[in-house]
Amino acid sequence: MPFQLETSSAEPAFGTVYSASLSPPPAVPMEHRAACQRVREITYETFAQIVDRDMMRRDRRHAMLHIRQIALYVCHVTLSLPLPNVAVCFGRDRSTVSIACQRVEDRRDDPGFDEFVTAVEEQAKPLLATLQAGDHD
């Protein structure tokens, strides 16, 4: 007898997503989206300046993970953007952003890493004025 998927009205089929059970992502202001994009660019550009391009090509996935974690951290901590907004901007879950922030914070004990994150934060600080102007509109 061939395998047949049995479905009943009492139990949903595997993988069924109900829109009522999931809240929609928050509406993220364009200023937040633009700031997150710019922080990602700043982080990548700063990283590319100090890391050998051949090494970055060999381990691109690992490098991009660190770049994204630092960008998430700077957006949330330095720019004070809410976790849900940062998560939507980066296409991640809020808990992923929280964990990334914790990991970056834990690694700041390393002087070289701390110096790198501080350099990214300094370059991102001018975005605060844009964000604060957008909040007053």
Explained architecture:
The chain starts with 29 loop residues before the first helix and ends with a helix. Helix content is 68%, strand content 0%. The chain has helices at 30-50, 53-58, 60-78, 83-90, 94-107, 111-124, 126-136. It has 137 residues and is an all-alpha fold. It is globular, with a radius of gyration of 20 Å. The model is unreliable at 1-20 (pLDDT under 50).
Q: How much of the sequence is in beta strands?
A: under 5%
Task: Spell the H/E element sequence.
Answer: HHHHHHH
Question: Which overall shape is indicated by the principal axes computed on the Cα atoms?
Answer: globular
What ranges have pLDDT less than 50 throughout 5 or more consecutive residues?
A: 1-20
Structural class of the helices, strands and pairings?
mainly alpha
Structural topology:
Elements: H1 30-50, H2 53-58, H3 60-78, H4 83-90, H5 94-107, H6 111-124, H7 126-136
Sum this structure up briefly.
The chain is mainly alpha-helical and 137 residues long. It has helices at 30-50, 53-58, 60-78, 83-90, 94-107, 111-124, 126-136.
Structural descriptors:
single chain, disordered N terminus, mainly alpha, 137 residues
